[in-house]
Amino acid sequence: MSAEQANVRSAAHRSDDRIIIFDTTLRDGEQSPGASMTVSEKLRIALLLEEMGVDIIEAGFAIASEGDFRAVNEVAKQVRNSVVCSLARASLADIDRAAEALQPAAQKRIHTFIATSPLHMQFKLQMTPEAVHEAVIDSVTRARSHTDDVEWSCEDGSRSEHDFLCRCIESAIAAGATTINIPDTVGYAYPDEFADLIRMIRNRVPNIDKAVISVHCHNDLGLGVANSLRAIQAGARQVECTINGIGERAGNAAMEEIVMAIRTRPDLLPQTTRIVTQHITRASRLVSAITGFAVQPNKAIVGANAFAHEAGIHQDGMLKHAGTYEIMRPEDVGLVRSNLVMGKHSGRHAFKKKLAELGYEIGDNALAEAFARFKALADKKKEIFDEDLIALIDDEIQATDQRIKVVELEVQCGSRPKSFARIALEIDGAQQRAEAEGDGPVDATFHAIQKLVPHNARLALFQIHAVTEGTDAQAEVTVRLEEHGKTVNGQGAETDTILASARAYVMALNKLLVKREKTAPAALSA
Ligand code: KIV
Ligand code: ZN
After folding, report:
1. Which 3-state string (H, E, C) describes 440-478?
2. Residue 35, CB-side half-sphere exposure with 13 Å CA sphere
3. CB-defined site of ligand 1, < 6 Å
4. Residue 239 Cα, ligand 1 centroid: separation in angstroms?
5. How crowded is residue 428: how many other Cβ atoms within 10 Å of its Cβ?
6. Rounded distance, CA 411 to CA 56, Å?
7. Tens-place pLDDT, residues 226-256
8. What digits encode the pLDDT tens for the residues 73-83?
9. What kind and span of H or E run contains 157?
10. SS3 for 363?
11. pTM of the model
Protein backbone atom coordinates (compact mmCIF):
# COMPACT_ATOMS: atom_id res chain seq x y z
CA MET A 1 0.00 0.00 0.00
CA SER A 2 1.32 3.45 -0.87
CA ALA A 3 1.84 6.10 1.80
CA GLU A 4 -0.94 8.11 0.14
CA GLN A 5 -3.39 5.18 0.40
CA ALA A 6 -2.37 4.68 4.01
CA ASN A 7 -3.06 8.33 4.79
CA VAL A 8 -6.45 8.19 3.10
CA ARG A 9 -7.32 5.07 5.04
CA SER A 10 -6.17 6.31 8.38
CA ALA A 11 -8.06 9.55 7.79
CA ALA A 12 -11.18 7.49 7.05
CA HIS A 13 -10.54 5.49 10.18
CA ARG A 14 -10.37 8.66 12.21
CA SER A 15 -13.59 9.99 10.73
CA ASP A 16 -15.93 10.50 13.61
CA ASP A 17 -19.05 9.12 12.06
CA ARG A 18 -17.90 5.69 10.93
CA ILE A 19 -17.28 2.62 13.05
CA ILE A 20 -14.69 0.23 11.69
CA ILE A 21 -15.84 -3.37 11.95
CA PHE A 22 -13.00 -5.77 12.70
CA ASP A 23 -14.25 -9.32 12.48
CA THR A 24 -12.38 -12.02 14.37
CA THR A 25 -14.69 -14.99 13.73
CA LEU A 26 -11.82 -16.81 12.01
CA ARG A 27 -9.36 -16.20 14.85
CA ASP A 28 -10.96 -15.59 18.26
CA GLY A 29 -14.16 -17.29 17.05
CA GLU A 30 -12.21 -20.36 16.06
CA GLN A 31 -10.75 -20.45 19.57
CA SER A 32 -14.22 -21.38 20.89
CA PRO A 33 -14.02 -24.72 22.68
CA GLY A 34 -15.26 -27.29 20.17
CA ALA A 35 -14.80 -25.13 17.07
CA SER A 36 -12.30 -25.67 14.32
CA MET A 37 -12.42 -24.76 10.66
CA THR A 38 -10.59 -26.06 7.64
CA VAL A 39 -8.80 -23.69 5.28
CA SER A 40 -11.59 -23.87 2.70
CA GLU A 41 -14.25 -23.26 5.37
CA LYS A 42 -12.38 -20.19 6.56
CA LEU A 43 -12.10 -18.95 3.02
CA ARG A 44 -15.84 -19.26 2.47
CA ILE A 45 -16.57 -17.28 5.59
CA ALA A 46 -13.94 -14.67 4.67
CA LEU A 47 -15.44 -14.13 1.21
CA LEU A 48 -18.86 -13.62 2.75
CA LEU A 49 -17.45 -11.19 5.32
CA GLU A 50 -15.87 -9.25 2.47
CA GLU A 51 -19.20 -9.16 0.65
CA MET A 52 -20.86 -7.93 3.85
CA GLY A 53 -18.52 -4.96 3.95
CA VAL A 54 -16.38 -5.96 6.93
CA ASP A 55 -13.45 -3.53 7.12
CA ILE A 56 -10.87 -5.88 8.62
CA ILE A 57 -10.90 -9.68 8.64
CA GLU A 58 -8.65 -11.31 11.22
CA ALA A 59 -8.01 -14.54 9.34
CA GLY A 60 -5.99 -16.39 11.96
CA PHE A 61 -2.86 -16.62 14.03
CA ALA A 62 -0.28 -17.46 11.36
CA ILE A 63 2.32 -19.03 13.65
CA ALA A 64 -0.20 -21.21 15.53
CA SER A 65 -0.20 -24.04 12.97
CA GLU A 66 0.41 -24.87 9.35
CA GLY A 67 -3.38 -24.76 8.84
CA ASP A 68 -3.63 -21.26 10.35
CA PHE A 69 -0.78 -20.08 8.13
CA ARG A 70 -2.45 -21.47 5.02
CA ALA A 71 -5.80 -19.98 6.01
CA VAL A 72 -4.34 -16.48 6.46
CA ASN A 73 -2.39 -16.88 3.22
CA GLU A 74 -5.40 -18.10 1.21
CA VAL A 75 -7.66 -15.35 2.57
CA ALA A 76 -4.90 -12.83 1.78
CA LYS A 77 -4.76 -14.09 -1.81
CA GLN A 78 -8.50 -13.94 -2.44
CA VAL A 79 -9.98 -11.10 -0.40
CA ARG A 80 -9.55 -7.74 -2.10
CA ASN A 81 -11.95 -5.28 -0.50
CA SER A 82 -11.27 -5.89 3.19
CA VAL A 83 -8.01 -5.54 5.07
CA VAL A 84 -6.69 -9.02 5.95
CA CYS A 85 -5.07 -9.35 9.35
CA SER A 86 -3.03 -11.95 11.23
CA LEU A 87 -2.48 -12.08 14.96
CA ALA A 88 1.07 -12.28 16.35
CA ARG A 89 2.45 -12.36 19.88
CA ALA A 90 5.15 -9.83 20.77
CA SER A 91 7.84 -12.05 19.32
CA LEU A 92 9.81 -11.35 16.19
CA ALA A 93 9.25 -14.87 14.84
CA ASP A 94 5.47 -14.49 15.24
CA ILE A 95 5.48 -11.14 13.49
CA ASP A 96 7.64 -12.34 10.61
CA ARG A 97 5.41 -15.39 10.15
CA ALA A 98 2.31 -13.17 10.09
CA ALA A 99 3.96 -10.95 7.47
CA GLU A 100 4.86 -13.98 5.37
CA ALA A 101 1.29 -15.29 5.44
CA LEU A 102 -0.09 -11.85 4.57
CA GLN A 103 2.33 -11.28 1.74
CA PRO A 104 -0.25 -11.62 -1.12
CA ALA A 105 -2.85 -9.35 0.52
CA ALA A 106 -4.06 -6.23 -1.28
CA GLN A 107 -4.43 -4.60 2.15
CA LYS A 108 -2.78 -6.16 5.18
CA ARG A 109 -2.58 -5.57 8.90
CA ILE A 110 -0.39 -7.16 11.55
CA HIS A 111 -2.03 -7.33 14.96
CA THR A 112 0.47 -7.82 17.74
CA PHE A 113 -0.34 -8.10 21.42
CA ILE A 114 1.12 -8.56 24.87
CA ALA A 115 -0.53 -8.61 28.28
CA THR A 116 -0.19 -5.48 30.43
CA SER A 117 -2.10 -6.36 33.62
CA PRO A 118 -0.08 -7.10 36.79
CA LEU A 119 -1.65 -10.56 37.03
CA HIS A 120 -0.77 -11.58 33.48
CA MET A 121 2.71 -10.04 33.54
CA GLN A 122 3.69 -11.66 36.82
CA PHE A 123 2.14 -15.12 36.52
CA LYS A 124 1.63 -15.80 32.83
CA LEU A 125 4.45 -13.95 31.14
CA GLN A 126 6.79 -13.90 34.15
CA MET A 127 8.13 -10.63 32.85
CA THR A 128 8.72 -7.32 34.57
CA PRO A 129 6.71 -4.30 33.40
CA GLU A 130 9.97 -2.86 31.99
CA ALA A 131 10.52 -5.97 29.85
CA VAL A 132 6.91 -5.85 28.65
CA HIS A 133 7.28 -2.18 27.75
CA GLU A 134 10.41 -2.96 25.76
CA ALA A 135 8.63 -5.83 24.00
CA VAL A 136 5.83 -3.43 22.98
CA ILE A 137 8.32 -1.14 21.24
CA ASP A 138 10.28 -3.99 19.62
CA SER A 139 7.19 -5.82 18.37
CA VAL A 140 5.45 -2.77 16.92
CA THR A 141 8.70 -1.61 15.30
CA ARG A 142 9.15 -5.03 13.71
CA ALA A 143 5.53 -5.13 12.52
CA ARG A 144 5.92 -1.64 11.01
CA SER A 145 8.91 -2.89 9.03
CA HIS A 146 6.45 -5.16 7.19
CA THR A 147 3.36 -2.93 6.82
CA ASP A 148 2.06 0.58 7.54
CA ASP A 149 -1.06 -0.87 9.13
CA VAL A 150 -0.19 -2.14 12.61
CA GLU A 151 -2.56 -2.83 15.47
CA TRP A 152 -1.30 -3.20 19.01
CA SER A 153 -3.38 -4.80 21.79
CA CYS A 154 -2.82 -4.66 25.52
CA GLU A 155 -4.16 -8.05 26.53
CA ASP A 156 -6.20 -7.86 29.75
CA GLY A 157 -6.23 -4.09 29.19
CA SER A 158 -9.31 -3.55 31.35
CA ARG A 159 -7.43 -4.91 34.40
CA SER A 160 -4.19 -3.03 33.72
CA GLU A 161 -2.84 -0.16 35.83
CA HIS A 162 -3.63 3.12 34.16
CA ASP A 163 -0.17 4.73 34.34
CA PHE A 164 1.51 1.68 32.85
CA LEU A 165 -1.22 1.19 30.26
CA CYS A 166 -0.94 4.81 29.06
CA ARG A 167 2.84 4.53 28.88
CA CYS A 168 2.64 1.36 26.74
CA ILE A 169 0.01 2.89 24.45
CA GLU A 170 2.07 6.05 23.95
CA SER A 171 5.16 3.98 23.13
CA ALA A 172 3.23 1.69 20.77
CA ILE A 173 1.96 4.71 18.82
CA ALA A 174 5.42 6.30 18.80
CA ALA A 175 6.79 3.02 17.40
CA GLY A 176 4.20 3.13 14.60
CA ALA A 177 0.97 1.46 15.76
CA THR A 178 -1.98 2.91 13.85
CA THR A 179 -4.69 1.15 15.87
CA ILE A 180 -4.68 0.68 19.63
CA ASN A 181 -6.96 -2.10 20.78
CA ILE A 182 -8.21 -2.25 24.36
CA PRO A 183 -9.43 -5.76 25.13
CA ASP A 184 -11.65 -6.73 28.00
CA THR A 185 -10.01 -10.13 27.71
CA VAL A 186 -11.86 -11.86 30.52
CA GLY A 187 -15.20 -10.05 30.12
CA TYR A 188 -14.84 -8.42 33.54
CA ALA A 189 -15.66 -4.77 32.82
CA TYR A 190 -18.95 -2.96 33.39
CA PRO A 191 -20.19 -0.66 30.62
CA ASP A 192 -19.65 2.69 32.40
CA GLU A 193 -16.33 1.58 33.81
CA PHE A 194 -15.16 0.51 30.34
CA ALA A 195 -16.32 3.81 28.79
CA ASP A 196 -14.37 5.67 31.51
CA LEU A 197 -11.27 3.65 30.60
CA ILE A 198 -11.57 4.74 26.95
CA ARG A 199 -12.08 8.39 28.01
CA MET A 200 -9.10 8.16 30.36
CA ILE A 201 -6.90 6.91 27.51
CA ARG A 202 -8.12 9.68 25.21
CA ASN A 203 -7.38 12.29 27.86
CA ARG A 204 -4.04 11.03 29.06
CA VAL A 205 -2.13 9.56 26.10
CA PRO A 206 -0.57 12.57 24.38
CA ASN A 207 -0.29 11.05 20.87
CA ILE A 208 -3.62 9.16 20.93
CA ASP A 209 -4.98 11.27 18.03
CA LYS A 210 -2.50 9.46 15.75
CA ALA A 211 -4.25 6.12 16.22
CA VAL A 212 -7.73 4.65 16.07
CA ILE A 213 -9.01 3.33 19.40
CA SER A 214 -10.45 -0.14 19.13
CA VAL A 215 -12.24 -2.35 21.66
CA HIS A 216 -12.41 -6.12 21.96
CA CYS A 217 -14.96 -7.25 24.55
CA HIS A 218 -15.49 -10.78 25.76
CA ASN A 219 -18.85 -11.87 27.01
CA ASP A 220 -18.22 -13.67 30.31
CA LEU A 221 -20.79 -11.54 32.12
CA GLY A 222 -23.00 -11.16 29.05
CA LEU A 223 -21.79 -7.55 28.68
CA GLY A 224 -19.64 -7.82 25.53
CA VAL A 225 -22.01 -5.87 23.29
CA ALA A 226 -23.00 -3.34 25.98
CA ASN A 227 -19.34 -2.62 26.74
CA SER A 228 -18.55 -2.18 23.03
CA LEU A 229 -21.44 0.26 22.53
CA ARG A 230 -20.52 2.34 25.58
CA ALA A 231 -16.92 2.40 24.32
CA ILE A 232 -18.13 3.83 21.00
CA GLN A 233 -19.98 6.54 22.89
CA ALA A 234 -16.73 7.29 24.70
CA GLY A 235 -14.75 7.63 21.47
CA ALA A 236 -13.70 4.14 20.28
CA ARG A 237 -13.95 3.91 16.51
CA GLN A 238 -13.15 0.25 15.85
CA VAL A 239 -15.06 -2.68 17.30
CA GLU A 240 -13.79 -6.25 17.30
CA CYS A 241 -16.52 -8.83 17.12
CA THR A 242 -17.58 -12.20 15.73
CA ILE A 243 -20.57 -13.62 13.88
CA ASN A 244 -23.02 -15.17 16.36
CA GLY A 245 -20.74 -13.95 19.15
CA ILE A 246 -18.59 -17.09 19.04
CA GLY A 247 -15.20 -17.01 20.73
CA GLU A 248 -13.12 -18.05 23.72
CA ARG A 249 -15.26 -19.21 26.68
CA ALA A 250 -18.55 -17.25 26.61
CA GLY A 251 -17.52 -15.68 23.32
CA ASN A 252 -16.97 -12.21 21.92
CA ALA A 253 -19.30 -9.31 21.26
CA ALA A 254 -21.66 -10.38 18.45
CA MET A 255 -21.20 -8.45 15.23
CA GLU A 256 -24.86 -8.62 14.24
CA GLU A 257 -25.94 -7.16 17.59
CA ILE A 258 -23.46 -4.29 17.45
CA VAL A 259 -24.26 -3.42 13.85
CA MET A 260 -28.03 -3.54 14.34
CA ALA A 261 -27.85 -1.61 17.63
CA ILE A 262 -25.98 1.16 15.82
CA ARG A 263 -28.42 1.10 12.95
CA THR A 264 -31.55 0.97 15.11
CA ARG A 265 -30.64 3.75 17.56
CA PRO A 266 -29.15 6.66 15.61
CA ASP A 267 -30.47 8.95 18.36
CA LEU A 268 -27.94 7.41 20.76
CA LEU A 269 -25.26 6.30 18.29
CA PRO A 270 -25.14 8.63 15.30
CA GLN A 271 -22.30 6.62 13.71
CA THR A 272 -22.61 4.17 10.82
CA THR A 273 -20.89 1.00 9.69
CA ARG A 274 -20.21 -0.27 6.17
CA ILE A 275 -21.98 -3.55 6.86
CA VAL A 276 -24.62 -4.66 4.37
CA THR A 277 -27.01 -5.86 7.04
CA GLN A 278 -29.06 -7.93 4.58
CA HIS A 279 -26.24 -10.51 4.64
CA ILE A 280 -26.42 -11.00 8.41
CA THR A 281 -28.72 -14.03 8.40
CA ARG A 282 -26.65 -15.70 5.69
CA ALA A 283 -23.44 -15.15 7.61
CA SER A 284 -24.98 -16.43 10.83
CA ARG A 285 -26.19 -19.61 9.12
CA LEU A 286 -22.87 -20.24 7.41
CA VAL A 287 -20.87 -19.86 10.63
CA SER A 288 -23.31 -22.01 12.54
CA ALA A 289 -23.20 -24.72 9.86
CA ILE A 290 -19.43 -24.75 9.62
CA THR A 291 -18.72 -24.72 13.35
CA GLY A 292 -21.64 -26.98 14.27
CA PHE A 293 -22.64 -24.40 16.92
CA ALA A 294 -26.39 -24.03 16.89
CA VAL A 295 -27.77 -20.53 17.42
CA GLN A 296 -30.07 -20.40 20.44
CA PRO A 297 -33.68 -19.65 19.33
CA ASN A 298 -33.94 -16.50 21.44
CA LYS A 299 -30.57 -15.08 20.33
CA ALA A 300 -30.88 -11.40 19.40
CA ILE A 301 -31.03 -10.63 15.65
CA VAL A 302 -30.31 -14.14 14.31
CA GLY A 303 -32.20 -16.53 16.62
CA ALA A 304 -35.12 -18.43 15.08
CA ASN A 305 -37.51 -16.55 17.39
CA ALA A 306 -35.96 -13.10 16.98
CA PHE A 307 -38.78 -11.97 14.71
CA ALA A 308 -41.48 -14.47 15.74
CA HIS A 309 -44.60 -13.28 17.56
CA GLU A 310 -46.65 -15.87 19.36
CA ALA A 311 -48.71 -14.10 22.01
CA GLY A 312 -52.13 -13.10 20.67
CA ILE A 313 -51.84 -9.55 21.93
CA HIS A 314 -48.54 -9.14 20.06
CA GLN A 315 -49.94 -10.62 16.87
CA ASP A 316 -52.90 -8.28 17.07
CA GLY A 317 -50.60 -5.27 17.51
CA MET A 318 -48.37 -6.43 14.65
CA LEU A 319 -51.35 -6.70 12.29
CA LYS A 320 -52.36 -3.13 13.13
CA HIS A 321 -48.84 -1.67 12.94
CA ALA A 322 -45.58 -3.65 12.69
CA GLY A 323 -43.82 -0.99 14.76
CA THR A 324 -45.84 -1.93 17.84
CA TYR A 325 -43.61 -4.89 18.59
CA GLU A 326 -40.91 -4.82 15.91
CA ILE A 327 -37.98 -2.40 16.23
CA MET A 328 -36.18 -3.77 13.16
CA ARG A 329 -37.54 -5.22 9.95
CA PRO A 330 -36.66 -8.89 9.37
CA GLU A 331 -35.72 -8.09 5.78
CA ASP A 332 -33.05 -5.68 7.06
CA VAL A 333 -31.11 -8.67 8.39
CA GLY A 334 -31.84 -10.74 5.29
CA LEU A 335 -34.73 -12.72 6.69
CA VAL A 336 -37.45 -13.16 4.11
CA ARG A 337 -40.88 -14.30 5.16
CA SER A 338 -42.11 -16.71 2.57
CA ASN A 339 -45.01 -18.99 1.83
CA LEU A 340 -43.04 -21.16 -0.52
CA VAL A 341 -43.84 -24.69 0.64
CA MET A 342 -41.41 -27.37 -0.44
CA GLY A 343 -42.43 -30.90 -1.31
CA LYS A 344 -41.80 -33.87 -3.52
CA HIS A 345 -42.66 -32.00 -6.71
CA SER A 346 -40.61 -28.88 -6.10
CA GLY A 347 -38.00 -28.28 -8.78
CA ARG A 348 -34.38 -27.26 -8.53
CA HIS A 349 -35.19 -23.60 -9.23
CA ALA A 350 -37.73 -23.37 -6.40
CA PHE A 351 -35.29 -25.20 -4.14
CA LYS A 352 -32.52 -22.71 -4.90
CA LYS A 353 -34.91 -19.78 -4.38
CA LYS A 354 -36.04 -21.19 -1.05
CA LEU A 355 -32.45 -21.63 0.12
CA ALA A 356 -31.69 -18.03 -0.82
CA GLU A 357 -34.71 -16.91 1.22
CA LEU A 358 -33.41 -18.88 4.17
CA GLY A 359 -30.09 -17.09 3.83
CA TYR A 360 -28.05 -19.75 2.02
CA GLU A 361 -26.07 -19.31 -1.13
CA ILE A 362 -24.20 -22.45 -2.04
CA GLY A 363 -22.04 -23.41 -5.01
CA ASP A 364 -23.33 -25.50 -7.91
CA ASN A 365 -21.81 -28.79 -6.73
CA ALA A 366 -23.11 -28.44 -3.20
CA LEU A 367 -26.48 -27.38 -4.61
CA ALA A 368 -26.68 -30.50 -6.78
CA GLU A 369 -25.90 -32.73 -3.80
CA ALA A 370 -28.26 -30.85 -1.51
CA PHE A 371 -31.04 -31.08 -4.11
CA ALA A 372 -30.54 -34.85 -4.43
CA ARG A 373 -30.74 -35.17 -0.64
CA PHE A 374 -33.81 -32.95 -0.56
CA LYS A 375 -35.52 -35.20 -3.11
CA ALA A 376 -34.64 -38.27 -1.08
CA LEU A 377 -36.01 -36.57 2.03
CA ALA A 378 -39.19 -35.56 0.22
CA ASP A 379 -39.73 -39.21 -0.69
CA LYS A 380 -39.60 -40.18 2.97
CA LYS A 381 -41.32 -37.17 4.49
CA LYS A 382 -44.59 -35.63 3.34
CA GLU A 383 -44.08 -32.10 4.57
CA ILE A 384 -40.73 -30.37 4.36
CA PHE A 385 -40.42 -27.47 6.79
CA ASP A 386 -37.83 -24.69 6.78
CA GLU A 387 -36.15 -26.40 9.74
CA ASP A 388 -35.72 -29.55 7.64
CA LEU A 389 -33.99 -27.63 4.89
CA ILE A 390 -31.78 -25.76 7.36
CA ALA A 391 -30.68 -29.05 8.98
CA LEU A 392 -30.05 -30.64 5.59
CA ILE A 393 -28.05 -27.73 4.20
CA ASP A 394 -26.04 -27.27 7.40
CA ASP A 395 -25.17 -30.95 7.19
CA GLU A 396 -24.21 -30.60 3.53
CA ILE A 397 -22.07 -27.51 4.19
CA GLN A 398 -20.22 -29.30 6.98
CA ALA A 399 -19.62 -32.37 4.85
CA THR A 400 -18.07 -30.46 1.93
CA ASP A 401 -14.29 -30.85 1.54
CA GLN A 402 -13.92 -33.24 4.46
CA ARG A 403 -11.25 -35.96 4.51
CA ILE A 404 -13.58 -38.62 5.89
CA LYS A 405 -17.08 -39.20 4.53
CA VAL A 406 -19.81 -41.72 5.27
CA VAL A 407 -20.62 -43.71 2.13
CA GLU A 408 -22.88 -46.50 3.37
CA LEU A 409 -24.20 -47.87 6.63
CA GLU A 410 -26.09 -51.02 7.48
CA VAL A 411 -27.15 -51.95 11.02
CA GLN A 412 -28.87 -54.86 12.68
CA CYS A 413 -30.39 -54.23 16.09
CA GLY A 414 -33.36 -55.09 18.24
CA SER A 415 -33.90 -57.50 21.10
CA ARG A 416 -30.80 -59.62 20.39
CA PRO A 417 -27.96 -59.10 22.94
CA LYS A 418 -25.58 -57.37 20.50
CA SER A 419 -26.17 -54.98 17.63
CA PHE A 420 -24.12 -55.15 14.48
CA ALA A 421 -22.95 -52.40 12.09
CA ARG A 422 -21.25 -52.51 8.71
CA ILE A 423 -19.94 -49.21 7.42
CA ALA A 424 -18.14 -47.88 4.33
CA LEU A 425 -16.17 -44.66 4.68
CA GLU A 426 -14.27 -42.68 2.11
CA ILE A 427 -10.96 -41.68 3.68
CA ASP A 428 -8.77 -39.32 1.68
CA GLY A 429 -10.49 -40.47 -1.50
CA ALA A 430 -10.23 -44.25 -0.90
CA GLN A 431 -13.18 -46.36 0.16
CA GLN A 432 -12.71 -48.60 3.21
CA ARG A 433 -15.09 -50.96 4.98
CA ALA A 434 -15.39 -52.29 8.53
CA GLU A 435 -17.90 -54.08 10.73
CA ALA A 436 -18.33 -54.23 14.48
CA GLU A 437 -20.63 -55.26 17.28
CA GLY A 438 -21.81 -53.07 20.11
CA ASP A 439 -24.36 -52.42 22.82
CA GLY A 440 -27.01 -51.00 20.58
CA PRO A 441 -26.78 -49.71 17.00
CA VAL A 442 -25.02 -46.43 17.81
CA ASP A 443 -22.30 -48.18 19.82
CA ALA A 444 -21.79 -50.75 17.04
CA THR A 445 -21.61 -48.00 14.40
CA PHE A 446 -19.10 -45.96 16.39
CA HIS A 447 -16.93 -49.07 16.95
CA ALA A 448 -16.93 -49.77 13.22
CA ILE A 449 -15.87 -46.16 12.52
CA GLN A 450 -13.15 -46.45 15.16
CA LYS A 451 -11.72 -49.49 13.37
CA LEU A 452 -11.25 -47.40 10.24
CA VAL A 453 -10.12 -44.22 12.00
CA PRO A 454 -8.25 -45.40 15.12
CA HIS A 455 -8.18 -42.74 17.86
CA ASN A 456 -8.43 -42.32 21.63
CA ALA A 457 -10.81 -39.40 21.74
CA ARG A 458 -13.47 -39.60 24.44
CA LEU A 459 -17.13 -39.23 23.52
CA ALA A 460 -18.00 -36.22 25.68
CA LEU A 461 -21.51 -35.60 24.36
CA PHE A 462 -24.06 -37.47 22.30
CA GLN A 463 -27.29 -35.62 21.74
CA ILE A 464 -30.29 -36.24 19.50
CA HIS A 465 -32.81 -33.61 18.63
CA ALA A 466 -35.84 -34.00 16.38
CA VAL A 467 -35.80 -31.20 13.82
CA THR A 468 -39.59 -31.15 13.46
CA GLU A 469 -42.59 -33.04 14.81
CA GLY A 470 -43.65 -36.53 13.70
CA THR A 471 -42.02 -39.93 13.58
CA ASP A 472 -40.68 -39.19 10.09
CA ALA A 473 -38.81 -36.12 11.43
CA GLN A 474 -35.12 -35.70 10.71
CA ALA A 475 -32.86 -36.41 13.66
CA GLU A 476 -30.12 -33.88 14.22
CA VAL A 477 -27.33 -35.50 16.18
CA THR A 478 -24.49 -33.69 17.91
CA VAL A 479 -21.33 -35.53 18.88
CA ARG A 480 -18.58 -33.95 20.94
CA LEU A 481 -15.17 -35.61 21.12
CA GLU A 482 -12.44 -34.72 23.56
CA GLU A 483 -8.77 -35.54 23.05
CA HIS A 484 -5.95 -34.19 25.27
CA GLY A 485 -8.08 -31.23 26.38
CA LYS A 486 -9.16 -30.31 22.86
CA THR A 487 -12.85 -30.62 22.04
CA VAL A 488 -14.61 -30.75 18.70
CA ASN A 489 -18.29 -30.86 17.76
CA GLY A 490 -19.80 -32.69 14.81
CA GLN A 491 -23.37 -32.69 13.62
CA GLY A 492 -25.38 -34.82 11.23
CA ALA A 493 -28.99 -34.72 10.11
CA GLU A 494 -30.97 -37.58 8.57
CA THR A 495 -34.37 -39.20 8.95
CA ASP A 496 -32.42 -42.29 10.02
CA THR A 497 -31.10 -41.57 13.53
CA ILE A 498 -28.21 -44.05 13.31
CA LEU A 499 -27.03 -42.66 9.98
CA ALA A 500 -27.26 -39.13 11.45
CA SER A 501 -25.16 -40.36 14.39
CA ALA A 502 -22.54 -41.82 12.05
CA ARG A 503 -22.36 -38.57 10.08
CA ALA A 504 -22.03 -36.53 13.27
CA TYR A 505 -19.27 -38.78 14.60
CA VAL A 506 -17.35 -38.66 11.33
CA MET A 507 -17.75 -34.88 11.20
CA ALA A 508 -16.30 -34.58 14.69
CA LEU A 509 -13.35 -36.77 13.60
CA ASN A 510 -12.77 -34.49 10.60
CA LYS A 511 -12.66 -31.51 12.94
CA LEU A 512 -10.31 -33.37 15.25
CA LEU A 513 -7.87 -33.90 12.38
CA VAL A 514 -7.85 -30.12 11.84
CA LYS A 515 -7.49 -29.38 15.53
CA ARG A 516 -4.65 -31.84 16.07
CA GLU A 517 -2.52 -29.72 13.75
CA LYS A 518 -2.84 -26.74 16.03
CA THR A 519 -0.24 -26.33 18.72
CA ALA A 520 -1.64 -23.99 21.38
CA PRO A 521 0.83 -21.10 21.30
CA ALA A 522 2.50 -20.46 24.65
CA ALA A 523 1.88 -17.17 26.40
CA LEU A 524 4.84 -15.42 24.83
CA SER A 525 8.48 -15.59 24.13
CA ALA A 526 9.30 -11.95 23.71
O1 KIV B 1 -9.12 -11.28 24.21
C2 KIV B 1 -8.02 -10.81 23.91
O3 KIV B 1 -7.35 -10.13 24.70
C4 KIV B 1 -7.51 -11.12 22.58
C5 KIV B 1 -6.30 -10.36 22.15
C6 KIV B 1 -5.34 -11.22 21.42
C7 KIV B 1 -6.73 -9.16 21.35
O8 KIV B 1 -8.09 -11.88 21.86
ZN1 ZN C 1 -10.19 -12.18 22.54
Report:
1. CHHHHHHHHHHHHCCCCCEEEEEEEEECCCCCCCCEEEE
2. 27
3. 28, 87, 113, 153, 155, 181, 183, 185, 216, 218
4. 12
5. 7
6. 49
7. 999 999 999 999 999 999 999 999 999 999 9
8. 999 999 999 99
9. none
10. coil
11. 0.83
